[in-house]
Design goal:
Blueprint (H helix, E strand, L loop, with lengths): L9 H11 L16 H11 L4 E5 L3 E10 L2 E10 L5 E8 L2 E9 L4 E5 L2 E2 L7 H13 L3 E10 L10 E8 L11 E7 L1 H9 L6 H12 L11
Parallel strand pairs: 4-9
Antiparallel strand pairs: 1-2, 2-3, 4-5, 4-7, 5-6, 5-10, 8-9
Length: 226
């Protein structure tokens, strides 16, 4: 729901969001957030810039904060995940190969090759969410999984983080065109690294998750064939 089109103003929704998610508005002496309603109203009247929740959907919340910096007040936009559960990035392995998807990404208006990933699902744990994403996007089951670490993909704009999880899966059989998926791409470690070096894989989640995979020294990962 876009609250700008309803009865609740962007600023009123913002104040309610602060109560719902105090951790998202944690105080800091570096860039303190101005929460005085009169100060916000004066800034908006002077600059014409809206402060508050300016857009909201089932996936994202677009927030514009009024921040006090060394040179005075300024508007600073950011995106919060609509759901507070753990977003996930899978590093799936089947038949000794990494399993990726070629998928059309609307924001870029082109296809990317990337590891499967998904938004947080409310109170669903990362472990359960990864099973859900693998089932939905690959029509596959997770046989074993191990966390690799957390990824903050764009801390300049987005407040969400994702859990990267390595998982062994059954044979992938994706539904054609589900979520604009074009095809499954199965690569050995050598092939994957060649794709990255050649610029054919540029997705930030994928590059970060693979870096976390590489830094892990667990014997669990030695099963990947090259």
């Amino acid at each position: 729901m876009n609250h700008n089109t309803g009865l609740e103003s962007p600023w009123c929704r913002y104040l309610r969001l602060m109560e719902e998610r105090p951790q998202a508005f944690a105080p800091s002496p570096l860039l303190p957030i101005e929460t005085d309603s009169q100060t916000v109203a004066d800034f908006t009247a002077r600059t014409g810039q809206a402060i508050g929740v300016v857009y909201e959907s089932r996936y994202q919340i677009m927030v514009v904060d009024l921040v006090r910096g060394p040179e005075g007040l300024f508007a600073y936009e950011r995106v919060l995940p609509a759901a507070q559960g753990d977003a996930v990035v899978a590093v799936p392995i089947w038949d000794g190969k990494f399993v990726l998807l070629e998928q059309f990404r609307h924001a870029l208006r082109r296809c990317q090759i990337a590891f499967p990933r998904g938004f947080g699902e409310g109170k669903l744990s990362a472990e359960k969410n990864i099973c859900k994403e693998i089932q939905e996007e690959l029509q596959s089951e997770v046989l074993a999984q191990r966390p690799l670490g957390r990824i903050a993909p764009d801390s300049g704009l987005t407040a969400g983080e994702a859990c990267a999880i390595l998982c062994d899966i059954t044979e992938p059989k994706p539904v054609p065109h589900y979520e604009a998926i074009q095809r499954v791409v199965c690569l050995t470690q050598t092939e994957l690294e060649r794709q990255i070096a050649g610029g054919k894989i540029s997705d930030g989640f994928t590059l970060s998750a693979y870096t976390l995979y590489q830094t892990s020294k667990a014997r669990y990962y030695s099963r990947i064939r090259t």
